[in-house]
Amino acid sequence: MMQIGSAQAEAGQRAFGHIEVGETLSRIPVAIPVNVVNGSGDGPTLAVTAAMHGPELVGSVAIGRLLRELAPAALKGQLIAVPVVNTSAFEFNQRATFWDGKDLNRQGRGNPEGSITERLARAYFDHIVRQADYLIDIHSGGPDSYYYYTIYLSEVPGVALNPAVVRTSREMALAFGLEHIFAKTPWRGTLKDEAMKAGVPSITIEMGGGADFFRNGAAQVETCVRGITNVMKYLGMLDGEIRVESSRCTLWDAHTEITAGSASGFMMRQTHWGDVLQTGDTYAIVYHPYTGEEVARITAPRAGTVLNSGTVWPAIPPGRWLAVLGDLLEEVELEYAVVSQGDA
Fold this sequence. Notes:
The chain is α/β, with parallel strands linked by helices and 344 residues long.
């Protein structure tokens, strides 16, 4: 018997249930909806989650498709699948939890006596991370942003990670199959950080987004499903060939954010992903929304390559996160099969 929250499944079965979190001020119950698939054969437990942030739904759609297509009889081990972790952020289409305005992915392991977001983080850590042998957490852009890379952490500043956890996380990232991997990032306090500290090999996927979902979304979902099943094949949970998008994978130190600062208006990028900027080079020009006058130039705070991540809609408020710069760490030749143009 496999049980996560109220979801219980015997070998060869699947089930749906909830992980109870708590109540809001007005006693509205808060829970994490969870699916479990208990395979017919022995194997590890993989947790796959999405929508910690409400508008980031590519992973949610992909997990739903995976659940429709995955036969428990073909699975060796167990799958914990959570298409929507933060239900209020999803309901109200916002990054932060509606009930307290906090970012679920910046709460560390959370606090069972804290605010709703802190309790969500703790429930996620206790009932999902601690019950899993491996973790894939999927994010994406919303309508105004686009991201396309995998994150594994080669290090967490100030923390001595288990080298075996780091190695396995790296192999999971390579097997997922995206061409670009961030091995270092400027973002701390994430639940992936906490999972790795707890000894659970983990990767984060940033899978697409943008305002043209019904033009490119199906390909993003396809890539995401293929990546999840690639990792399951790497872990021995599924049979079959791992297929990746390129024979070479590039690892980056994503070290510096570019933000709007005090500028606001219509942003027009002056660079493309892959361009190399020096400190002070112009990344974008901001124009007044009513007069068309130039009001600011947003420049690179540090030298680096413009990585495939950032805001893709012109209207920006002050402080808006726009892009990330990084330096090349390593290029890895892969021995996996490469997906052909037009392949499913």
